Amino acid sequence: MRNLLRPFEDLLCLFFPHLCLACEHNAPPYGEHICTSCRLTLPESNYHTRKDNPFTEKFWGRIDLHAGTAMYLFTKESRVQHLIHNLKYKRKQEVGIILGRRLGATLRHAPLFADVDVIVPVPLHLRKLRIRGYNQSEVFAEGISETFGRQHIGDGMRRVVHSASQTKQSREARLHNVGEVFQVNKPKSLEGKHILLVDDVLTTGATLETCASRLLELPGTRVSMATIAIAMH
Asked: For the chain, where are the alpha helices, taking DSSP H only?
């Protein structure tokens, strides 16, 4: 059936070209969403290979973070920003799945993450979830789970207070806003576990810091973090 539909899909692409979700210029291979050039040249951080790195430095003296990594380095108007924008605002959930699978395959061979037990995404408030239709961090976590081989607990945390976008706020302002926003939703499933906390982008780190603090209140927990990108200033 798929082969029968292929000519019609090719014809449709002539009028509505399927462009790479990163560069938004090249056509990716059939069945893919990121072109070959972008897959090979997106700015990878490789932070998963070392414990002390620009990701973990953001949390020094704030929380006891076991390990932290971001797939890519984020700058404005970049291909990485296009990927994030397509995932969050253009309903391209496949971006999160694809990138999650790629990171999960990498973490399988990363000693710092070898004993991770469960994957927990940073939650969205129900109001924002209804508007967007999905949590981009949970989609990313699902992709990681597929190739990393670790349990994904999508509702491990919940956001109990809705807050406006914090994109342009300082770290101090963000920490004040999210201080009482997050709660652990399934403590018995997370106690004594090494938890991989997942979000889309690390900017100031306020949201991840607050979520990690709540998780670390559980007996015997350790927390590592992973994001699609880290903002470079």
From this structure: 2-15, 36-41, 54-57, 79-89, 93-107, 126-132, 136-148, 171-178, 187-190, 206-216
Residues 227 and 152: beta-carbon distance below 8 Å: no
Q: What is the DSSP string of 133-150?
A: SS-HHHHHHHHHHHHH--
* Shared-domain flag, residues 23 and 50: no
CB 87 within 8 A of CB 104: no
CATH, residue 155? 3.40.50.2020
pTM of the entire predicted model: 0.85
Closest listed residue to residue 201, CA positions, set 157, 160, 232, 176: 232
**pLDDT tens per residue, range 84-113:** 999 999 999 999 999 999 999 999 999 999
C-alpha angle with apex 165: 160 to 167, nearest 5 degrees? 130
